[in-house]
Every structure is written in C-alpha cells, then in structure tokens.
Amino acid sequence: xxxxxxxxxxxxxxxxxxxxxxxxxxxxxxxxxxxxxxxxxxxxxxxxxxxxxxxxxxxxxxxxxxxxxxxxxxxxxxxxxxxxxxxxxxxxxxxxxxxxxxxxxxxxxxxxxxxxxxxxxxxxxxxxxxxxxxxxxxxxxxxxxxxxxxxxxxxxxxxxxxxxxxxxxxxxxxxxxxxxxxxxxxxxxxxxxxxxxxxxxxxxxxxxxxxxxxxxxxxxxxxxxxxxxxxxxxxxxxxxxxxxxxxxxxxxxxxxxxxxxxxxxxxxxxxxxxxxxxxxxxxxxxxxxxxxxxxxxxxxxxxxxxxxxxxxxxxxxxxxxxxxxxxxxxxxxxxxxxxxxxxxxxxxxxxxxxxxxxxxxxxxxxxxxxxxxxxxxxxxxxxxxxxxxxxxxxxxxxxxxxxxxxxxxxxxxxxxxxxxxxxxxxxxxxxxxxxxxxxxxxxxxx
Length: 446
Prior knowledge:
Blueprint: H1 3-9, E1 12-18, E2 33-34, E3 40-48, E4 54-62, H2 65-69, E5 87-88, E6 103-108, H3 115-118, E7 122-123, E8 126-127, E9 138-144, H4 150-166, E10 169-175, H5 178-190, E11 195-199, H6 203-215, E12 219-223, E13 237-241, H7 243-256, E14 262-267, H8 273-285, E15 291-295, H9 302-309, E16 314-319, H10 322-332, E17 340-345, H11 350-357, E18 362-365, H12 368-384, E19 398-402, E20 405-407, H13 409-414, H14 421-425, H15 427-444
Parallel strand pairs: 9-10, 9-11, 11-12, 12-13, 13-19, 14-15, 14-16, 16-17, 17-18
Antiparallel strand pairs: 1-6, 2-3, 3-4, 4-5, 7-8, 18-20
C-alpha cells in the first residue's frame, strides 16, 4: 500500500507509551504538548488533595490546522485521563522526578469524505483540481512530426489508451509545419477546449496562438521539445525527455567506448529546439573532439549528406531518431566501420536488432509511450489545478523530466534468456525481435 493510501485508510492511530513526568509547582497545570503531526495537543493537569497528596491526569484536544490559520479558537479540552498510578505522596522526596503509569491515548481520525462530498480530484477534503469535467469536455493534444516516425506512432498509441482509460473527449492532431499547428490550437480554442497540450518544436511560431488560448481561459501544458520555452508560452507544466541529459549521456557512452575525434550529431528536423539542445549538451560534455551538426531533410539525399560529413577526423555519430539511425547505418556502417554509431530511439524491434548485430553501439531510449501517458495525465491535472501560472503563485512552468535509458547489445541478448520476463509475458515481441535480427543479418550480408 502506498503512503498516500495508507494515510487515507488509517482512520485511527494510537499513541502508545506516553510517560507522564510529574512536575511540582504552579507550571504543572499549564503544560501543552503537540504531536509531531500537529493533530492533537496534550496537557498535564494536577490537583492537591486534602490529605496532602497531589493527583495528576492528562487532557487532550484535537487541533484544526485550518482554524489555526484563520485565527479561530481550538476545540475544548476533553475529559481527564487518569493513570492508574497518579498520586504523589505529600512527603515525597524534594527535587526527585516521579513517573505515573503509562497512559494510552487513542486519537480518532474522521473518515475521508466521499467523492460526492469533496468533488472530483480532491484528496481528504483538500482541493487539488477545481474545474471538474465530463465526457463532453474537449481536450486537445497537438504535435509536430510526421506519421512515418515510429516515435510519434507510440506517442499517439499512448494517447489513444489514455483517452479510453480516462473516458475523455481527446482530440489528437499532428502537423508537419508550425504555422499549421498554431492554426490547430486556434481551432481547439474556437471549439471550446478546456485544456490544450502541445509540443514546442517551434515555440516562436506557436506563441501568439498559445497566448490567445490563455487569454480565452484555456489551460495550456506542453511536452516533448521546448522545455526551456514552456514558461514563455504560458504553460502550466512541461513533460519531456531531459534533452540535456541525452547529450551528456551520449558523451559519456562515447567516452566509455574510447571514442576520439569528431562526433556527428545528425538533426532530422530543421526547426526543432529540443534536437538542438541534445547537440548543445553533447558539445559541452564531449572532450575528444568537435561536435559537427549534420542537418538532413526529406528534400535531400540524406545518406549522401551524412557520408560527406564523415571525414577521417570523425570517430562517432549519433542519430536523434530511429528513421535517421537507418540512414546513418546505411551510409556509414560498411564504408566507415571504424566509426562508433549510436541512436536516440524508442522503436521496437529494428534498432534493437541493429544493436544485436553490432551496427549500433548503444541506443538512448527516449520513452515515447511514457511521454504520451504522462502528457495526458498532465493535461487533466493542468485543466483543474487551482494554481496555474496565471495566478502568479509559481513563476515558472512545472518541469516533468524523463531521463534517457542506455540500451546495449548485452541487454538485447538478455531478452533471449530462458528466464527473461519479456519472453514469458510477451512472446510475440520476442518473435518480432528474432525476425528483425534475421532481416538485419541479411541486410548486412552476414
């Protein structure tokens, strides 16, 4: 059971083992003790009897944090709780501490309110989302990209799953041009969208449309590219792979493989700020040579462009998506087998087959599915959070960063082990990987 659920379900807690220290003097009746959770106060009370003895007892009262914040009086003290051994003889030794017997205090916590009482997306009566929605509420997700990119296929698969799981009206659209993506944002606003999630590959192009959305009261969250511009466009939160970590991790992996010389950082989208960040970080982190940016596009002979940059000074190259990895391997693996090749990918199974065959040295997994799922969750949260950036409480968009994961040939080989978890749970995936490895071997002429 998680900590949050345990907190909600534990309606009672018991404070056991409280030992009452008897204090002689006028201050004995004024002691107040607060529990570490600030949920109750305890005080010691005492009275002197006719025969000279002193009797002690405890009193408790609940603490209402909201009442404290508002300066209201706390509830009254409860009944006195009397320990079995609670009397101090009149001739007791001066300056000696005496202890009563143990008193067990049971503190009753109210059961959490029902959903009907507290409203959607509230926890224990504290609102976390203030704008409820229903099946007719429109949510929009807009991305850059092309349908041939398997990364986006996975993102949209996750969006489809999340739409079904959350039973929401989710519109998801892809655009190859930023101006068209901006128009898509405007259409969502016109159609009454409650919240919009968008990528920021071209933040300057999207900025006017996103400002219009915010002015219309539409909540905005962002994801994938453009983390550093999220606050500028009025985003409440940004979900993305940590682009700088991609560059740092790539540099470390090249270093571990004793790569020296220049590195090619192959960029497949000309205006994508996230891809530039990856190359920036690689350039900062790599000390074995220069980092050369190779920009390719559909209009060019990409393989020829990559080959032209692979001079004798180049020791490594990294493709920033799966499609580019195929082009890179086609251009370099046979002609320049001395160059260490790597890729950023979340595709299954072909890049893993390329790892297995040795055409790729390592893959940095970019977690496409996770970005899709987390973006939907963030979209729903952003729709209802009582603290959007417009309130001024937070000066910057919340950053939800995903670190890249290194995948090696050894990790791929482990998937074929007899006790592999994926072999037992997803045998079709193993079959697909085996076919991809056979195709890879045929392509490389082995």
